[in-house]
């Protein structure tokens, strides 16, 4: 018993007096270690409090939130924000040119697409068959709701779609079509056949050297002059294909970088085991490539969502163009700042959600490595 007690004594002695650092200790160590650090921290906090107070005073305390008579008279002589423009014009921002009495269809279609995106992020749907069924069902329901012509719904052409619904649809369709294209381009560029590899590299470099506006303009306005009538399709689908091609060119290089980061010995070992090309690619190379290239992939998805605002150049009313129309009348022309803040908040919600999901995937895959 004495020997056991003596052996435990040092461990107990080491634990005596151990206390985790509290919040005050961490703040003092991080921001007030020296007099210079303390001065800079105090000045920074004072500046932040000053800006936060004035922003809160303008956006909340002195703001006007509604207009009982539906006019902008209540916002003429105020010192704060005029959020009444959002209360009166939010339908234009969210639905664009969609017919007023059919806007419930646009709202429901937007919800369907967002729910489809959210469900596809759940691990249970990470099976090819389940994911394919989910996205096919989501796109069919979305298109039926927006286009109409069935179940007693009035037909609405894609030229009259707009707002947040159109932005979400273009983004989802571009990524859904562009990701398989990117995988194919990345694999073709690594092909052992020089002609295939060089032609794919020329296509990728050619698309990446062009601005997205040029590709969208060509898809929307130039292709109808060079394609036969049966191959033209609707303008929105040509724009989606151009959008997907631009996304695929950049994403292909991201995937290729992920493949190149895999040690060469893994592929050689797979060949020695007798695995075929598709078994090596689908079970060994691509899963590791996506894991290695996850941060730039999330970054590319965020950039792609923000680039949907460029479709206004070719005549589509996305959420940013709809926001311009919301304050474009003489009645609310002074409230452009509030409209842009509202649109920015919508973009922030989507982009921040994408970034947080990317962080979740990184943690999940890092845990899987251990």
From TrEMBL:
Q: Which InterPro entries match?
A: AA_ABC_transptr_permease_3TM, ArtM/GltK/GlnP/TcyL/YhdX-like, MetI-like, MetI-like_sf
Compartment(s) of residence:
Cell inner membrane; Cell membrane
Superkingdom of the source species? Bacteria
Could you list the residue ranges that cross the membrane?
A: 36-56, 106-126, 133-156, 168-188, 209-230, 236-252, 308-327, 339-359
Q: Name one GO cellular component term.
A: ATP-binding cassette (ABC) transporter complex
SUPFAM superfamilies, alphabetically?
MetI-like (SSF161098)
Chief localisation class: membrane
Acyltransferase: is it a keyword of this entry?
no
Alphabetized UniProt keyword annotations? Cell membrane, Membrane, Plasmid, Transmembrane, Transmembrane helix, Transport
Q: Which GO terms describe its molecular function?
A: transmembrane transporter activity
User: What Gene Ontology biological process does one annotation of this record name?
Assistant: amino acid transport
Provide the topology term for how it sits in the membrane.
Multi-pass membrane protein
Q: Start and end of every ABC transmembrane type-1 domain?
A: 164-358
Similarity comment:
Belongs to the binding-protein-dependent transport system permease family. HisMQ subfamily.
Q: Which PANTHER family match?
A: INNER MEMBRANE AMINO-ACID ABC TRANSPORTER PERMEASE PROTEIN YHDY, MEMBRANE COMPONENT OF AMINO ACID ABC TRANSPORTER
Name listed for the protein in its UniProt record: Amino acid ABC transporter permease
Give the species this sequence originates from: Shinella sumterensis
